[in-house]
Specification:
By secondary structure, the protein is α+β, with helices and mostly antiparallel strands. It has 2 domains: 109 residues, Alpha-Beta Plaits, CATH 3.30.70; 106 residues, 2-Layer Sandwich (Alpha-Beta Plaits), CATH 3.30.70. Helix content is 24%, strand content 33%. It contains 5 helices and 11 strands; from the N terminus they run E-E-H-E-E-H-E-E-E-H-E-E-H-H-E-E. The protein has an 8-stranded antiparallel β-barrel with strand order 2-4-3-11-6-9-8-5, surrounded by 4 helices. Strand 8 and strand 9 form a beta hairpin. The longest helix has 17 residues. It is globular, with a radius of gyration of 17 Å. 30% of the residues are buried.
């Protein structure tokens, strides 16, 4: 049985070993809304394969994109779903199909504001030159920011690495969109943002989007969802 939850997914769920992240461009508000509603209805009505634990859909604040964040028990469960007689279609139903991009949660940072409700998710993405650069980049980010006080409104940051070793995806939780805008427009006296976004060899920033949760679905019986 599938149930709807009112909060974003719990990224650190202990039973999640594989994450599939899908982003699709929608070009305008009308298409974003229509596509989000259609994908939500379709995902809620179709049978869920074993091992799919949650599916969350986000709408970008610039009204130009959708993002699906899927949590799976492991790769074997996803592979079985993809190879079933009626194959599971990961991502956003009704949009262009493609091979799922798989990620692992690598490291997390939770600020003192963990208790705050999540009002906005921000997703900086980085293209990297292989697994060593994935590791080096995340190590550098944590080393540069370990003594820096959390910005107002920052709740948590969850760094994911793609299993094809080409990307780092930061799923960052904020109290609201304005808090993140204030962060990126604030002074950067230590040059941390400058270094993260363009001065680490083998790492290329691909930009970011801000998102609001549209729908979160999870299998019934799993309490560790919010």
């Amino acid at each position: 049985m599938i149930r709807r939850i009112e909060t974003p997914p719990k990224i650190t769920r202990a039973d999640v070993n594989t994450v599939v992240i899908t982003v699709r461009h929608t070009s305008d508000t009308g298409r974003q809304t229509t596509a989000a509603e259609a994908a939500t209805v379709g995902r809620g009505e179709e049978p869920w394969p074993d091992g799919l634990l949650s599916w969350s859909l986000f709408t970008s604040t610039d009204e130009q994109a959708l993002m699906a964040y899927e949590q799976w028990g492991d790769d074997d469960a996803l592979d079985s779903a993809l190879a079933s007689p009626v194959p599971y279609l990961p991502g956003i139903l009704g949009t262009e199909r493609s091979a799922p991009v798989r990620y692992r949660l690598d490291r997390s940072y939770v600020s003192a504001a963990e208790w705050a409700p999540v009002g906005c998710v921000v997703t900086p993405v980085f293209d990297v030159d292989g697994p060593q650069r994935q590791r080096y980049f995340i190590d550098e980010v944590f080393a540069m920011t370990k003594d820096v006080a959390p910005m107002p409104g920052s709740i948590a940051a969850y760094f994911h690495t793609s299993t094809d070793d080409t990307r780092v995806f930061n799923y960052a939780e904020w109290s609201d969109e304005q808090a993140h805008i204030d962060m990126v427009t604030a002074d950067d006296p230590r040059g941390i943002r400058r270094r993260i976004t363009g001065e680490i060899p083998g790492v290329r920033p691909c930009g970011y989007r801000r998102w609001h949760l549209h729908t979160a679905l999870a299998t019934a019986g799993h309490a560790d969802v919010g």
